[in-house]
């Protein structure tokens, strides 16, 4: 029996397949003989190439798909949405392109969606907000454009939201104030404009917020929640201003109008020290008055 048939004979008999870090090479294929009950656990960090086969959608009882860290390219097939029992989908660190399929909304059981570090384009599908059980959404480091759908604020179970390092424009939705469970929001390195919504101050569980390197303007919210966030969270927004509450022991730490640009604040402090030092040195030299030749 050829080696390939032996391998697939084994697959036909198993329910869980873990081939993480196995240096698997070649194409990711889906044979008709694969049992629908098969659950692929880990295929990440291998050397799989070519496209994700649409036939994978036949594995309707699939629970967990992790093919991160490979060399897969092409679009994410709509047929993946046929795996209606899928709980976790991890495709990060490939070369996938195209848009994020709106059909993913049919994966109502999914709690984890990671598309980090691909070449995905186009807008964030409004339909993602219909995956009601989602607790992690990471589409960072892609080429996503357009605005953030306000309907993402309907994801009441969301714990982590990462949209950083894209080309996203528009405002931060005030509806994010409805994300009562969220712990981490990263919107950095985009082209967002407008103010930081005051509604974010209502998020009692939010311990990490990063809106750095955008085009935000206006005042930083003064709610106590914002005392948790370091200056790096706001750096790189030249028109952002206000008071930053850096810690509970510093109730009001004024920051310059330069936009919470922490590096500028440091440089300003250093310049002041240099001026004081020069003044001190000049004052230390004795001054001589020569009255010789006067009568």
TrEMBL record:
<dbReference type="GO" id="GO:0004674">
    <property type="term" value="F:protein serine/threonine kinase activity"/>
</dbReference>
<dbReference type="InterPro" id="IPR051420">
    <property type="entry name" value="Ser_Thr_Kinases_DiverseReg"/>
</dbReference>
<keyword id="KW-0547">Nucleotide-binding</keyword>
<feature type="domain" description="Disease resistance R13L4/SHOC-2-like LRR">
    <location>
        <begin position="80"/>
        <end position="215"/>
    </location>
</feature>
<keyword id="KW-0723">Serine/threonine-protein kinase</keyword>
<keyword id="KW-0812">Transmembrane</keyword>
<keyword id="KW-0067">ATP-binding</keyword>
<keyword id="KW-0433">Leucine-rich repeat</keyword>
<keyword id="KW-1133">Transmembrane helix</keyword>
<protein>
    <recommendedName>
        <fullName>non-specific serine/threonine protein kinase</fullName>
        <ecNumber>2.7.11.1</ecNumber>
    </recommendedName>
</protein>
<dbReference type="Pfam" id="PF23598">
    <property type="entry name" value="LRR_14"/>
</dbReference>
<dbReference type="InterPro" id="IPR032675">
    <property type="entry name" value="LRR_dom_sf"/>
</dbReference>
<dbReference type="InterPro" id="IPR055414">
    <property type="entry name" value="LRR_R13L4/SHOC2-like"/>
</dbReference>
<dbReference type="GO" id="GO:0016020">
    <property type="term" value="C:membrane"/>
</dbReference>
<keyword id="KW-0325">Glycoprotein</keyword>
<comment type="similarity">
    <text>Belongs to the RLP family.</text>
</comment>
<keyword id="KW-0808">Transferase</keyword>
<keyword id="KW-0418">Kinase</keyword>
<keyword id="KW-0677">Repeat</keyword>
<keyword id="KW-0472">Membrane</keyword>
<dbReference type="GO" id="GO:0005524">
    <property type="term" value="F:ATP binding"/>
</dbReference>
């Amino acid at each position: 029996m050829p080696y390939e048939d032996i391998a697939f004979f084994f697959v036909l008999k198993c329910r869980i397949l873990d081939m993480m870090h196995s240096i698997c090479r070649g194409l990711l294929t889906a044979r008709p003989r694969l049992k629908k009950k098969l659950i692929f656990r880990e295929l990440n960090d291998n050397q799989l190439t070519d496209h994700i086969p649409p036939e994978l959608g036949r594995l309707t009882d699939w629970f967990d798909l992790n093919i991160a860290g490979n060399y897969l390219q092409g679009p994410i097939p709509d047929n993946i949405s046929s795996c209606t029992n899928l709980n976790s989908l991890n495709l990060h660190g490939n070369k996938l392109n195209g848009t994020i399929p709106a059909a993913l909304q049919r994966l109502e059981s999914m709690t984890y969606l990671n598309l980090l570090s691909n070449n995905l384009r186009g807008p964030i599908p409004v339909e993602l907000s219909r995956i009601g059980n989602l607790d992690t959404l990471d589409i960072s480091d892609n080429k996503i454009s357009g605005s953030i759908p306000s309907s993402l604020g309907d994801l009441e179970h969301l714990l982590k939201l990462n949209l950083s390092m894209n080309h996203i424009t528009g405002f931060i939705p005030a509806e994010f104030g409805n994300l009562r469970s969220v712990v981490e929001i990263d919107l950095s390195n985009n082209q967002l404009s407008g103010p930081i919504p005051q509604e974010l101050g209502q998020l009692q569980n939010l311990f990490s917020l990063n809106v750095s390197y955008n085009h935000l303007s206006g005042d930083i919210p003064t709610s106590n929640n914002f005392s948790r966030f370091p200056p790096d969270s706001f750096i790189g927004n030249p028109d952002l201003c206000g008071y930053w509450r850096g810690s509970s022991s510093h109730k009001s730490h004024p920051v310059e109008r330069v936009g919470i640009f922490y590096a500028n604040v440091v440089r300003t402090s250093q310049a002041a020290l240099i001026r004081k030092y020069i003044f001190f040195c000049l004052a230390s030299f004795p001054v001589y008055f020569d009255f010789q030749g006067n009568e």
